[in-house]
Every structure is written in structure tokens, then in C-alpha cells.
Amino acid sequence: MKTGIVDVGGGLRGIYAAGVLDYCMDQGIHFDLGIGVSAGSANLSSYCAHQRGRNYRFYTDYAFRKEYMSWDNFLSQRSYVDLDYVYGTLSCADGENPLDYAALRDNPMEFYVVATDAETGQAHYFAKTDIRQDNYDIMKASSAIPFVCQPYAIGGRSYYDGALSDPVPVEKAFSLGCGRVVLLLTKPERLLRTSGKDEKLAACIRHTYPAAAKELCQRAKRYNDSVALARLLARQGKVLVVAPKDTFGVDTLTRDRDALEKLYQEGYADGERIETFLKQGR
User: Fold this and answer.
1) What is the pLDDT of residues 211-256, one digit of tens each?
2) Which end of the chain is more exposed for a tag (fewer CB within 10 A), N or C?
3) What residues have CB less than 8 Å from 200, skipping those under 6 apart?
């Protein structure tokens, strides 16, 4: 029976999941399969490469640099977050904090990254075999927030953030053979997502990418329905939902070091719940 882990991302709120995953590495907790969405794909790539603490530096150091995200980026590149800086300049072999590609490649854990086809609005699930040394384009595609970033092109197709089409891919994990799944949320479990911000962003891309804009307007409902399903499966012992009780005011692009540190520590402490869940399933 495969055990899977799903990290839904959430911009800088993803530091919560980074804390959970660092706890897992410290305790030698392994999974057979991982699915990452947006920032969740970056979190899981470092986890898969056994690079404990790597994600933490991205959230608490690099994210504060103007090269990472700034209005200068938006004016010069039409992307507030420079995905090439994050997943290229910093992450390549000659970068400041390279991803250990060989370790990621050789880890037997299956690894999938969700992105949204900008033309069709449909989910696309990239696999670990789509990653090459110093080519982390699938993470860039999965993290391309509409309007905040330009869609990212791979193989002649343009992609937006995976959260548009499959924000909580628990069903996907089960369809890939998992018998139980750990779900990492970065919002409180019972907090319903609303569509107000999504509708504003959708209006900015509707003319060029109408299908993606439509999916963006449906994201809140899709997220809420998927979390409700996860909670139902949790009562059956098939899913463990790990979510923060307090995000300390951190939102997608919030840069507050004290709040980020608190959210990381909360995630690290909550990681203990995974150890208990996995022991119960033996």
C-alpha cells in the first residue's frame, strides 16, 4: 500500500509545510509518492532530495530580495515573482543554494507536479522524469500565479499555477495507487476559501486565456470541495490533514520574518502528527 503526501503550496504560507517536511526528514519519515502544487512542488523537491532546511532559506532569506519578487520585476518582466531567479539562478548547480538533482532523481519516491494548461484550463501532472539537471521548468510552471506572473512555457504549451485546476490533488494521489495520504494545507483546515481575489485576477487574464480565467473563478469551490472530501476520508483513516491553526497573518506574498518563523515552527511541531498516523497504519 502506497503512502502519499500532498503539498498544496500557498506562496509564502508554504513555510508551514516546509517545517512539516523538515520534521519528517529529521525523523526519517519517508513516502512512496508526493504531489506538489505551486510552492508545494518546491517544498517536495527539496524533501525528495533530502535537503533539510533548504526550503527554510528560500522563505526567510531569498524571498526578501528584490530579484526574487518586486515591482521592479513586474515592470521589467511583467512577472512580480522571477521564477527563473528562484528555480534557476538560485537552484541550479552553480547557484547559491542548488537543488541536489542526483539525490532527487535517485530517490525511489514518485514525484508529481501539478500545473494548469493556460489554453485549456486543464490540469497537467508532470512527473519526476520531466526534471533534468538544472532544468526545473515544471516547478516554474506550477508556481506561475495568474497576472502576478506570466504563464510559463514548456514544450510549446503555456502553463499557470496548478492550483487553478487541481488545488488539493488528494483524489489524484489515490488514483495513482495510494492507500493513505498525508495532506499538507497552509490555511486552517476549516477555513473556507473565497473567490473574490481570484475573480479579480481572472479579469486580468480573461481576454488572453479565457479557459484559465474560468478555472481560476472555480478554484475556491474546487478547493473547498476537495478539503471536505479529505476530511471525510480522514474519518475513515485514509487521510491525515495537517494544517496550521494560526497563519500569523502570512498570506501568499507576505514578507514578515517573525510571522514566517512562527509559521515554520508551527509546521515543525505539527509534523509529529504524521509519525503517529503512519504508526497507526502499520
Assistant:
1) 999 999 999 999 999 999 999 999 999 999 999 999 999 988 889 9
2) C
3) none
Q: What is the dihedral of CA 82, 87, 91, 97, to 10 degrees?
A: 50
**What confidence tens digit (pLDDT) does each residue in 182-215 have?**
999 999 999 999 999 999 999 999 999 999 999 9
Q: At residue 111, what are phi and psi to the nearest 5 degrees?
A: -140, 125
In order, the DSSP letters of 137-154 are HHHHHHT--BTTBPPEEE
Alpha helices in the chain (DSSP H): 15-26, 39-48, 54-60, 71-77, 83-84, 101-106, 137-142, 170-175, 196-205, 210-235, 257-270, 272-280
Q: Which three cell numbers stand for residue 9?
A: 503550496
Bridge partners (DSSP) listed for residue 112:
35, 127
pTM given for the model: 0.96
